């Protein structure tokens, strides 16, 4: 607000300066198309286009060479829903997810609490718990295949047992789960650790003054403050675990495992596409799988929104 | 601010060993030993001869220490090729992802353009698409572009990570607008504001995005496995899993190769772990 005296003395100049400022400020935030263009180009080519193409292919009998695809309507979907192997392999992926998600969440929380509360050598604990995540999945899988090896493996030797980990139906998936826990818990551990460090100290100090013991402080401060991150860890783990492929395949030498018990939905889809050359059918399974994954993500968003409303 | 300062200065004034600290440290040590022993087992196996590696009964330390396996993988195998390929692919992917997702994150967070809401929704949907979910259609797309068995075919499909855009988008939304407004009023252009004000402020987030992209790309198995058949073009995880596993596994060599694939990242982590944890906290990954 310029005073009237100033406006009278230099009306034109004052007006222009103010105008330019507003215009510049507004323009600064406009026309951002060029910022997003490079990403959107790559995104359209390698995410959106394959998705649309997958939908198209799922209605055809396309093979891997790409020629002579005929429109077959819903045949692929009908076949997929009747295919016992689709349900079996989906079941294996779901079973894996059910085992991995709770274990990893609890283990990651436990490790983060340890690393956060031990006062000395914090870098060492961080390194030890996170290091396995830095290995390629195939290396972790080979390593555990070697550890679970019935004759020469260390696991049976150390525990003095004789379990046929990789050749018996009842243990094979468990072996894949154990390998996965060791290999990927580090990532969730890091998320929890960062969240723990973000809890303000004064909350604990106030609780201490009020006479709360360590257990009470954990139940009434730490756990509620970690609610959001736990939701994130579980959501990310569900999405990642449903897509399990690498470990299972490498640990079983690229075979479906004992009595096909570790063949996952991803593995089955890729077999249909690349081994049986049935691109159309594989695409149909992919789309069904995509819908399952997407419904989990939508459910999470719905839960989040509901949670926020609850708080308000 | 004060919290970090206190934390930094505490190591000098050593706290006494309370019973609970002793207990926790012992527990931590035990868990760490369990976590590290598979890696130690890999290392010891790689330093045995092939016959000793599969000898029964199994034993931890080599009776005769030998570098045979390490020498063999360098002399006979393709491993140096794979290492270079991994490096080329990961460095390219990381650079492109950093540039492209920082620009897009800023564009979505701060600028207005037509169709922004719809596009942002598409990006969210893209969070659920991966080579594991849509491998076959993605492969046929890349095949049509003639990029099977090329570096481009391995690199480009890894360069559109919706997750990284989303993380940076969230972060840029948190930067106070006034900083940019002041610069605009002084006559700075949008690109100048982005590169000289916004990017320097985002260093910890960019570091976290860069590091996690590099890890993901260095360790990526599924996509390179689908798109390359040529052993000369394979990356470390791919080469180790397919070629080294194909004709009669030689465990000592396999463990040596595996360590060679894993050690570079572990060494990098030793030096940058503080930044990585700070970056995770900073990107708001932790606060979602």
UniProtKB/TrEMBL annotation, chain A:
Major location (coarse): membrane
Alphabetical list of InterPro entries matching this protein: ABC_transporter_permease (IPR051393), MetI-like (IPR000515), MetI-like_sf (IPR035906)
Location relative to the cell: Cell membrane
Domain of life: Bacteria
Membrane topology (UniProt): Multi-pass membrane protein
Keywords on record: Cell membrane, Membrane, Transmembrane, Transmembrane helix, Transport
Transmembrane segments: 34-52, 94-115, 127-147, 171-194, 225-245, 279-303
Pfam name, any one: BPD_transp_1
Annotated ABC transmembrane type-1 domain residues: 90-300
Family per record: Belongs to the binding-protein-dependent transport system permease family.
Stated name of the protein: Sugar ABC transporter permease
Organism: Streptomyces ureilyticus
From TrEMBL, chain B:
Top-level division of the source organism's lineage: Bacteria
Keyword Amino-acid biosynthesis carried by entry: no
Short name of one Pfam family: BPD_transp_1
Domain ABC transmembrane type-1: 83-272
Principal subcellular localization: membrane
InterPro entries in the cross-refs: MetI-like, MetI-like_sf
Annotated membrane topology: Multi-pass membrane protein
Transmembrane segments: 21-44, 82-106, 118-139, 151-172, 193-216, 251-272
Family: Belongs to the binding-protein-dependent transport system permease family.
Name of the protein: Carbohydrate ABC transporter permease
């Amino acid at each position: 607000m310029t005073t009237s005296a100033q406006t009278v003395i230099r009306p034109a100049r004052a007006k222009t300066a103010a105008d330019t400022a507003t215009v510049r400020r507004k323009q600064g935030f406009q026309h951002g198309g060029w910022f997003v263009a490079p990403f959107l180009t790559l995104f359209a080519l390698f995410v959106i286009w394959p998705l649309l193409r997958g939908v198209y292919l799922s209605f055809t009998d396309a093979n891997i060479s790409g020629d002579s695809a005929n429109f077959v309507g819903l045949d692929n979907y009908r076949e997929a829903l009747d295919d016992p192997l689709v349900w079996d392999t989906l079941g294996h992926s779901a079973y894996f997810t059910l085992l991995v998600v709770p274990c990893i969440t609890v283990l990651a929380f436990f490790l983060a609490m340890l690393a956060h509360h031990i006062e000395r050598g914090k870098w060492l604990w961080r390194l030890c718990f996170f290091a396995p995540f830095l290995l390629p999945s195939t290396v972790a899988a080979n390593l555990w295949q070697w550890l679970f090896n019935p004759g020469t493996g260390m696991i049976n030797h150390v525990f003095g047992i004789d379990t046929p980990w990789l050749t018996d139906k009842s243990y094979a998936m468990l072996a894949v789960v154990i390998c996965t826990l060791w290999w990927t818990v580090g990532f969730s551990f890091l998320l929890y650790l960062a969240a723990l460090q973000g809890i303000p100290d004064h909350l604990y100090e106030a609780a201490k003054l009020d006479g709360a013991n360590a257990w009470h402080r954990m139940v009434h401060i730490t756990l509620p403050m970690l609610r959001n991150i736990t939701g994130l860890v579980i959501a990310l783990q569900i999405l990642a675990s449903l897509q399990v492929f690498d470990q299972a395949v490498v640990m079983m030498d690229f075979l479906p495992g004992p009595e096909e018990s570790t063949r996952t939905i991803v593995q089955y889809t890729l077999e249909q596409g690349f081994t049986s050359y049935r691109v159309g059918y594989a695409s149909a399974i992919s789309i069904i799988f995509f819908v399952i994954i997407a419904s989990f993500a939508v459910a999470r968003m719905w839960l989040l929104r509901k949670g926020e409303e609850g708080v308000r | 601010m004060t919290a970090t300062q206190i934390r930094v200065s505490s190591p000098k004034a050593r706290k006494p060993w309370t019973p609970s600290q002793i207990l926790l440290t012992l527990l931590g040590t035990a868990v760490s030993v369990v976590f590290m022993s598979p890696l130690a087992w890999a290392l010891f196996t790689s330093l045995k001869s092939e016959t000793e590696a599969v000898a029964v009964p199994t034993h931890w330390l080599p009776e005769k220490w030998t570098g045979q396996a390490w020498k063999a993988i360098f002399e006979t195998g393709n491993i140096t090729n794979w290492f270079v390929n991994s490096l080329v692919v990961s460095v390219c992917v990381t650079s492109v992802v950093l540039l492209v997702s920082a620009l897009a994150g800023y564009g979505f967070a701060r600028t207005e353009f037509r169709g922004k809401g719809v596009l942002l929704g598409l990006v969210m949907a893209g969070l659920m698409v991966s080579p594991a979910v849509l491998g076959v259609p993605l492969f046929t797309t890349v095949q049509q572009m003639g990029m099977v068995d090329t570096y481009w075919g391995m690199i480009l499909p890894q360069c559109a990570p919706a997750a990284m855009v989303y993380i940076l988008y969230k972060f840029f939304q948190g930067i106070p607008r006034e900083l940019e407004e002041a610069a605009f009023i002084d006559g700075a252009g949008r690109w100048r504001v982005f590169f000289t004000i916004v990017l320097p402020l985002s260093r910890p987030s960019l570091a976290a995005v860069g590091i996690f992209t590099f890890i993901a790309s260095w360790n990526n198995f599924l996509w390179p496995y689908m798109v390359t058949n040529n052993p000369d073009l394979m990356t470390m995880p791919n080469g180790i899993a397919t070629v080294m596993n194909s004709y009669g596994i030689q465990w000592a060599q396999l463990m040596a190769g595996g360590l060679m694939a894993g050690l570079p990242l572990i060494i990098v982590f030793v030096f940058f772990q503080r930044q990585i944890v700070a970056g995770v906290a900073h990107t708001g990954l932790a606060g979602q």
